[in-house]
C-alpha cells in the first residue's frame, strides 16, 4: 500500500520556507528552527509558512486585515487569502465531476516513479493516497490547516520548505490556478523535483469565456500555450484531456512530464 509519511520520516528534507532550500530545520520540542527563526507545530502539523505572516495566522488560515500601510510582502498574502478563504474553494467529494476527475488522476498516476511524492495543494491526503500505487511514499502540502486530523505540511507553493531535488514526483493537481504567482510556484516545484523525476499535473484549460470577473476561487484561467511554456525544461511523456461539466469553453488537462 502507498504510505502517507509522518513527520519523523521526512524531517531531514525540511528547510526554512524563506531560504529556497538552503537552511535546514531542526525540531526543538514543539517547533522547528533554522537557528534564527522558529516555525511551530500545531496539533502535530508543521506550520512552515514565512515568519512574517505568523502574526496573522488565525482559525487555521492566514487572515490579514485590509490596511494600506501593509508592507508589500504581507500585501501579497492579503491578496492571496481573499480567494483561498472562500468557503467553496473545493468541490464536493460526492460530486460526479469530482469523481470523474479523481478517476482521471488515478490514470495519470500510473506514470509516477517509485519513491517520494510531494502533493502541492493536497486538500485531503487520505483520499488522494488511494489513487497511488503501492510504491509511493506521500507527503501533502497545503496552506490551510482547519482540519488538523489530516496530516500534511502547512506551507505555500511559492515558498516550498524542502531541500533541492528532494522528490521523485511532484503533483500540482488542479492547484496552480489557485496561486497568485503561478510562475514562482511552478519554479519551486521544479526546484524540489529530482532530475529525471516526474511532474504530475492537471488544470482547466480555457478556450473562450475566460474572464475572471465572476470567478470566486481562481486567480488564472490558463490557455494551452501558457501551460506548455511552463514545461519548456521537461519532456512530456503522457497527456490527455477530458470534458469538464459538459462545457464547450474549457477542458481538463492531465499530463506527466519528466524533468530534464
Count, helices: 6
CATH superfamily of the largest domain: Vaccinia Virus protein VP39
Largest sheet: 8 strands, mixed
Q: Give the end-to-end Cα distance, rounded to a whole number of Å.
A: 29 Å
Number of domains: 2
Topology as a string of helices (H) and strands (E): EHEEEEEEHHEHEEEHEHEE
**Shape call:** globular
Question: What kind of assembly state do the chains in view correspond to?
Answer: single chain
Topology of helices and strands:
Elements: E1 3-4, H1 7-10, E2 26-28, E3 31-33, E4 38-42, E5 45-46, E6 57-58, E7 61-62, H2 72-84, H3 96-109, E8 115-120, H4 125-128, E9 136-142, E10 153-154, E11 167-173, H5 182-192, E12 193-206, H6 224-230, E13 234-243, E14 250-259
Parallel strand pairs: 1-9, 8-9, 8-11, 9-10, 11-12
Antiparallel strand pairs: 2-3, 3-4, 4-5, 6-7, 12-14, 13-14
Characterize the structure shown.
With 260 residues, this protein is of the alpha/beta class. The chain has 2 domains: 11-84, no CATH class; 96-259, Vaccinia Virus protein VP39 (Rossmann fold, 3-Layer(aba) Sandwich). Helix content is 20%, strand content 29%. It is built from 6 helices and 14 strands. Strands 1, 8, 9, 10, 11, 12, 13 and 14 form an 8-stranded mixed β-sheet that branches. The chain has a 4-stranded antiparallel β-sheet with strand order 2-3-4-5, with no helix packed on it. The longest helix has 14 residues, at 96-109. The chain starts with a strand and ends with a strand. The model has no long low-confidence stretch (mean pLDDT 93).
Amino acid at each position: 500500500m502507498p504510505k502517507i509519511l509522518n513527520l519523523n520520516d521526512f524531517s531531514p528534507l525540511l528547510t526554512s520556507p524563506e531560504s529556497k532550500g538552503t537552511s535546514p530545520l531542526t525540531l526543538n520540542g514543539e517547533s522547528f528552527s533554522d537557528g534564527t527563526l522558529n516555525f511551530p507545530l500545531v496539533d502535530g502539523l508543521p506550520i512552515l509558512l514565512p515568519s512574517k505572516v505568523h502574526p496573522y495566522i488565525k482559525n487555521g488560515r492566514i487572515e490579514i486585515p485590509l490596511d494600506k500601510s501593509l508592507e508589500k510582502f504581507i500585501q501579497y498574502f492579503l491578496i492571496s487569502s481573499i480567494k483561498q478563504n472562500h468557503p467553496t474553494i473545493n468541490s464536493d467529494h460526492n460530486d460526479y465531476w469530482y469523481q470523474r476527475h479523481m478517476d482521471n488522476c488515478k490514470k495519470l498516476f500510473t506514470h509516477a516513479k517509485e519513491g517520494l511524492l510531494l502533493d502541492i495543494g493536497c486538500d485531503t491526503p487520505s483520499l488522494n493516497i488511494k489513487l497511488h500505487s503501492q510504491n509511493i511514499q506521500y507527503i501533502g502540502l497545503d496552506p490551510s490547516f482547519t482540519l488538523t486530523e489530516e496530516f500534511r505540511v502547512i506551507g505555500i507553493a511559492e515558498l516550498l520548505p524542502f531541500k533541492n531535488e528532494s522528490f521523485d514526483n511532484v503533483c500540482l493537481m488542479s492547484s496552480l490556478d489557485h496561486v497568485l504567482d503561478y510562475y514562482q510556484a511552478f519554479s519551486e516545484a521544479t526546484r524540489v523535483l529530482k532530475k529525471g523525476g516526474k511532474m504530475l499535473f492537471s488544470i482547466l484549460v480555457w478556450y473562450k469565456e475566460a474572464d475572471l470577473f465572476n470567478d470566486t476561487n481562481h486567480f488564472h484561467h490558463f490557455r494551452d500555450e501558457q501551460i506548455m511554456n511552463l514545461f519548456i525544461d521537461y519532456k512530456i511523456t503522457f497527456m490527455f484531456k477530458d470534458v469538464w461539466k459538459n462545457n464547450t469553453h474549457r477542458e481538463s488537462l492531465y499530463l506527466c512530464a519528466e524533468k530534464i
